[in-house]
Amino acid sequence: MTTSTVDCWLLRATGDLDDSTLSSAERQRADAMRSAAAGRRYVSGRVAVRQVLGERLGLPPADVPIERADGRIHLVDRPDCHVGLSHAEDLVAVAVSADGSVGIDVEASERSGEGVPAVAMTPQKVVATAVLVGDRLAPLGVWVAQEAALKADGIGLSFPLSEVTLDPLNGGLVVRLGKRSVWGVTLRVVADAVVAVAAAGPPPVLHCCVVTQAGHHLAATGSNPGA
Ligand SMILES: CC(C)(COP(=O)(O)OP(=O)(O)OC[C@H]1O[C@@H](n2cnc3c(N)ncnc32)[C@H](O)[C@@H]1OP(=O)(O)O)[C@@H](O)C(=O)NCCC(=O)NCCS
To answer: For residues 97 and 6, is the Cβ–Cβ distance under 8 A?
Structure first.
């Protein structure tokens, strides 16, 4: 199976967020969220996705044809453009690939491993991941790698974590969701965050761009530390 390529952006959503690019349905959804923090998190994700996809597709962000199905983001009439999204506090991670389904998960690296459910962890998984991100970040690395694979599949956390296996492969990881599906996962520590990206086949090649502020022009602030 060929190796997928995934473009990946990491944005920080601090200060006032301009939600003028969101659709009215998205604004209603944000207003209906259980807390202001959840609403802000949702808005920051939509601002970032519209910004990234607008630049990629040559469309104003407000015109990006986003639809939500089964919890995840799809683009109307663009089966060649697969999108993944994750938030962690003020960080937003967006993944885009033409090569098939993609999953992304991000956590702030200061979290290290606290709060990660024990059922998600085995000593073997931690050792396999420590080789890639070091001992301190290994438990967090296991968590984001598994969650990225669960998102690429689309099942999310409905799948029992005890049935997820994780092994080293080609400088990354292979994550198996029982007999259901298999994903290559690439892990990166970028700008105080641990990011995992899952795609079909071997661990994907990442083109990774760090952007300081959601809402700014991407090319103006981008760098390419993870390529
Ligand atoms: C998808 C899921 C893993 C997200 O976990 P999280 O760490 O809380 O949140 P993240 O910020 O990393 O990711 C959220 C984004 O993932 C995407 N997403 C949601 N469900 C998804 C799914 N089933 N597959 C792929 N992506 C999904 C969405 O784009 C979402 O952001 P949005 O709601 O702003 O559009 C989790 O919410 C989940 O599994 N949901 C579906 C199953 C479920 O509800 N199970 C009960 C929970 S125990």
So the answer is: yes
